[in-house]
Amino acid sequence: MAGQVKHRGSALWIAALVHRLSGLALAIFLPFHFLALGLAIDGAARFDGFLRWTDQPPVKLAEAGLVFLLAVHLLGGLRVLVVENFAWRDGQKQLATIAAAVSVLIAVGFLARLF
Amino acid sequence: MSGTHEELSVSLWRGDDDGRYQTYSVPRRESQTVLDVVTFVQRHLDPTLSYRFACRVGVCGSCAMTVNGKPRWTCRTHVAKVAGGGRLEIGPLENLPVIKDLTTDMEQFFRKWQQAKGVFAPSQTRHDAIAQIRPDSPARVAADAAIECINCGVCYAGCDTVRWNSGYVGPAALTRAWTLLNDERDAGNTARLQAVAASGGCHSCHSHQSCQELCPQALNPTAAIAALKRRTAAAYLKGEITA
Amino acid sequence: MNVRLYVWQRATAAVMAPLVLGHIAVIFYATRQGFSAADILSRTRGSIVWAAYYGVFVAAAAIHASIGIRNILSEWSPLNERRAGFLAVVFGSLLAVLGARAVAAVVLS
């Protein structure tokens, strides 16, 4: 009905949305992750074949994305635990932005170590 | 049609939930508020426009509407601050059914207030001595910080969790429940904790903090709700309340 | 969402915070070293420590993720709370079963 709602652009609102979406993405990813690891049941060879497949650059890029999602979900969750359990503090928006930046750094660090 | 510097182009919501915006041209005045603009339309351009107001000075909470996408008190919103390019878009508060034009049905807002036990439960009668409450006791300080709510509905309109979860009681009801939890004279706190610990209570809050950003009284419902989460979790783990 | 689900959600989150940090460290180390399947399995096979670490991780993740999914379903889909809860339990069970199988795959020989 009404137009663009500006308070939805605030850093804390975005932090909450990123937390939810990263959690959803990780939840969808997990069953596939468990299935991949489950290949080891048939012995090292099949598992190894899978690991070979993950050596391709596009897959490595996707893995960096997953590392980012994991880091950002963890840091967003820590934000929630802090907001809910400690005295109110100012500067939360800055903390939320820093958390996102740190997650990006971790993911980039992951990628950089591979090449 | 955009306004000149002497005129505003004002789009007002007309009709009910299935209505539409209708545009009017309103002369600009110095120190004009958005409420002035709406009042001008109703008095001089279209007497069929429906809207609510009472005090006009920011103490009653009646005139809240959605102004350029943001819920605010229209009597305390200066046109100069929000009418970029001489345009205003004014609609009814979100998350509430529209009765007509700019008026909404606040029934669910007040029903949820009751549901969260935002009602004082007396522990004494008029025949008992007056309770001596120290204003600087931690509980009273906590209650006072959250008490000035005038039920304007801005936080409720701005809350995405209210929008997504029709069972969520909302920030205002929970803030009031928090103030009563801190009232030494109140005798209903077990029932109150049970009420806010139930489905649709404080645990539905995702700490988006839109309520805290938007509250015209500078209240902090997110902090009050966080405190309720701690209290209810402790009460649950001690077996004082059940899920 | 009520106080019971909330307590489980936050408790599993707190349990997983250090486990996730450890997991990221493991990921970095293993990928840096370019581990093959044999390298990984020679470290995990027969290890109580890996079994315990990832066993707890799987259990916590299954509970945490299913409660999160429940919230998303009840807020963003037309399903009511009961249906959302049911689907969330199904999903959580799937994660628990597949996760336990994955842990067994790398720990048991």
Question: Which key features would you list for this structure?
Answer:
heterotrimer, A: 115 residues, mainly alpha, 4 helices, disordered N terminus, B: Ubiquitin-like (UB roll), 2 domains, five-stranded mixed beta sheet, elongated
Shape of chain A: elongated
Count of separate DSSP helical elements of chain A: 4
Return the string of H and E elements of chain B: EEHEEHEEEHHHHHHHH
Structural domain count of chain A: 1
**Structural class of chain A, please?**
mainly alpha
Number of strands of chain A: 0
| CATH architectural arrangement of chain A | Up-down Bundle
Per CATH, the class of the largest domain in chain B reads Mainly Alpha
Using only CA atoms, what is the Rg of chain B? 21 Å
The largest sheet of chain A, given as strand count, sense and whether it forms a barrel, is: none
Level of helix content of chain B?
A: 25-40%
N-to-C CA distance of chain B: 56 Å
CATH arch. level architecture of the largest domain in chain B: Orthogonal Bundle
Determine the CATH topology of chain A.
Answer: 3 helical TM bundles of succinate and fumarate reductases
Written description of the protein model:
The complex is a heterotrimer of chains A (115), B (243) and C (109). With 115 residues, chain A is an all-alpha fold. Chain A is 77% helix and 0% strand. Chain A has helices at 11-38, 44-53, 57-85, 92-112. The longest helix of chain A has 29 residues, at 57-85. In chain A, 31% of the residues are buried. Chain B is an alpha+beta fold and 243 residues long. Chain B folds into 2 domains: 7-104, Beta-grasp domain (Ubiquitin-like (UB roll)), CATH 3.10.20.30; 107-237, Alpha-helical ferredoxin (Fumarate Reductase Iron-sulfur Protein, Chain B, domain 2, Orthogonal Bundle), CATH 1.10.1060. Helix content of chain B is 35%, strand content 14%. Chain B has helices spanning 34-45, 79-82, 107-115, 138-146, 154-158, 160-164, 171-181, 189-197, 210-214, 221-237; strands at 7-14, 20-27, 64-67, 70-73, 87-91, 98-100, 103-104. A 5-stranded mixed sheet of chain B has the order 2-1-5-3-4. In chain B, strands 6-7 form a two-stranded antiparallel ribbon. In chain B, strand 3 (64-67) and strand 4 (70-73) form a beta hairpin. In chain B, helix 3 runs parallel beside helix 7 (171-181) and helix 7 (171-181) packs across helix 10 (221-237). Chain B starts with 6 loop residues before the first strand and ends in a 6-residue tail after the last helix. Chain C is elongated, with a radius of gyration of 16 Å. Chain C has helices spanning 3-33, 37-44, 48-76, 81-107. Chain C has a single domain (3-107), classed as 3 helical TM bundles of succinate and fumarate reductases. Chain C has 109 residues and is mainly α. The mean pLDDT of chain C is 92. The longest helix of chain C is centred in the first third of the chain and has 31 residues, at 3-33. The A-B interface holds A 1-8, 10, 12-13, 16, 20, 80, 83-85, 88, 92 and B 13, 17, 66, 68-70, 89, 91, 94, 158, 160, 206-210, 213-214, 220, 222-223, 226, 229-230.
